[in-house]
Design a protein that fits this description.
single chain; 321 residues; alpha/beta; eight-stranded parallel β-barrel; two-stranded antiparallel ribbon; 10 strands; 38% helix; binds nicotinamide-adenine-dinucleotide
């Protein structure tokens, strides 16, 4: 395993980070015992960074992760979130200070620990900017002072909003998803300079573009426009013709991006842990990578709308358009 420093924090993260949303059945039913084996195998393989949220499986992922990490807590950096709780877009978010504090207590119980290493405001584009900056983050900072959490961060999809909020309130980390992988590399332009400048830890989530860059293809709920899906399918097909696998190409591409301390890949299966870890430190096949990027080029960096309209990135398109 290779480890990288997470910004200015004293935390060191494995370049492959464990994304626990599949443990909450977000990509279809996941077998609980297989999930436990995947988590334990990950720790054995040197993965030390685990990301979860009360939202994933509506608390199920936290329960399962807490269970699987029994006896291993000291070996891992545990990141969870506040602010997003349910699938209903109207009622599923609560970024109030009161809820932040209560949420952390609940997460500590489910994760069977007395401290969260990294607490992140989850998908801030669904909240009001003013509330996130003046209420949510200050409440999280108070929990940091109180020692309930060690570091605080923000997560979301629109990069310009993440940058704006990180400029307005000092955070330790920023997590964005689907913004540095074969389909989209805009994180590099929009977030990385600020992160470098301020010593903010960058977390790159969804290197497989939420399963689009696999032979199985994206889940039904995937927000990307059709033309993006078609390009990914064509790239996957080319890889098969070449006796390669699109997921391997995608993982190598993301892992090679040094500004990101860790690349979070969602896993609930031991074989995925094994496969993804095996790719650490291996070079991509430059010729195949070039051909894949050529196929993707016409739809590269196509971003979709997410959250409140005022928080969209410039040029973002309707979901599944
Ligand atoms: P991903 O791109 O990591 O894809 C995950 C899917 O790919 C799962 O279905 C998994 O079974 C499959 N997979 C994993 N390795 C594979 C392999 N080698 N071959 C074939 N299939 C493989 O997307 P993700 O899970 O959404 O993102 C990773 C993690 O990042 C999440 O679990 C979550 O922890 C975090 N995340 C956070 C946010 C946020 O905070 N807003 C958003 C997205 C993701």
């Amino acid at each position: 395993m290779i480890y990288r420093q997470l910004g200015k924090t004293e935390l060191t993260a494995s370049v492959v980070g464990y994304g626990a949303s599949p443990l909450g059945n977000e990509f279809g039913p996941a077998d609980a015992e297989e999930g436990t084996r995947a988590v334990r195998r990950a720790v054995d393989e040197g993965i030390n960074f685990f990301d979860v949220s009360p939202y994933y499986g509506r608390t199920l992922a936290e329960e399962r992760l807490g269970d699987a990490l029994e006896g291993l807590r000291d070996k891992v950096v545990l990141a969870t979130k506040v602010g997003r709780y349910d699938t209903d877009m109207a009622t599923g978010f609560d970024f109030s200070a009161q809820r932040v504090t209560r949420s952390v207590e609940e997460s500590l119980q489910r994760l069977r620990t007395d401290r969260i290493d990294l607490l992140q405001a989850h998908d801030i584009e669904f909240g009001g900017r003013e509330q996130i900056i003046h209420e949510t983050l200050p409440a999280m900072a108070r929990l940091k002072e109180a020692g309930k959490v060690r570091f605080i961060g923000i997560t979301g999809y629109p990069l310009h909003l993440l940058r704006l909020v990180a400029k307005a309130f000092e955070v330790d980390t920023i997590l964005s998803y689907c913004r540095y992988n074969l389909m989209d590399t805009s994180m590099d332009e929009v977030l990385t300079p600020l992160a470098k400048d301020r010593g903010i830890g960058l977390i790159n989530a969804s290197p497989l573009h939420m399963r689009m860059l696999t032979d199985k293809g994206p889940p039904e709920w995937h927000p990307a426009p059709q033309r993006v899906r078609r390009a990914a399918e064509a790239a996957a097909s080319l890889c098969r013709e070449r006796g390669a696998n699109i997921a391997d190409v995608a993982m190598r591409f993301a892992l090679a991006y040094e500004p990101a301390a860790t690349t979070l890949v969602g896993m609930s299966k031991e074989r995925h842990v094994e496969r993804n870890v095996r790719l650490v430190g291996t070079a991509p096949d430059a010729e195949l990578l070039g051909e894949v990027l050529e196929i993707i080029k016409p739809v590269a960096n196509v971003a979709w709308r997410s959250g409140r309209p005022e928080n969209d990135d410039p040029g973002a398109v309707e979901q599944q358009s």
